[in-house]
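User: Some background: our group keeps a shared notebook of sequences we're curious about, and every so often someone picks one and asks for a predicted structure to add to the entry. Today it's my turn. The entry only has the sequence so far, pasted here. Could you supply the structure so I can complete it?
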Amino acid sequence: MKLNESASIKGEYRLTLTLPETAKQEYQAILSFLKTHPVSRLKDEIERASHASIYRGLLADYYKRAKVEEMVFSNLIPTVGRSVLAQRLANTTTYTGIVNYAALGSGTTAPNNSDTQLGTESYRKTIDSQTYTNNVAYLSVFIPAGTATATHYEAGLFIDGAAGANTGQIFSRVLFSPPVAKTALVSLTLDISLTIS
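Assistant: Of course. Here's the predicted structure to add to the notebook entry:
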């Protein structure tokens, strides 16, 4: 009996631009929560799920008053990113398999399976929220007003990254079309879902 089964990973980046001036209290609540409850201190799945639930609630309150624009883009998982998953399944522990950084960049080349980094990385931040349900991983990064001020053309996720540009193993890359202009007055949230089906 022949089985026609295959697996794929589909990623979606939801970008939300918001204006903190219109929701100062909600904005400060998010910043305070992320400062006092960083993902790096969470010990297990239960803590990550609780953290994500509180974070989502704070974002929802903030979005009601401050949302300016929302955009959705599909990503590509380059070969090196898929390779990390295969390595982990085979008990090769070169990489943890944990996505810990997201980055923005100014590169305009379309994502390709051969990518090993962004075209031109310009901003990097640790993941602020991580959880999963069934076969979907949910990652989120909150980029405050006054930071990452530029026009961004690309983004990516990195496994075992560090604070420096182009560190870690790229797991996902997306090209923004149209590009995303982030002024100093707005905050930007990257909500990424990675579905394995």
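Suggested note for the entry: The chain has three helices and nine strands. Helices lie at 24-36, 45-66, 79-89.
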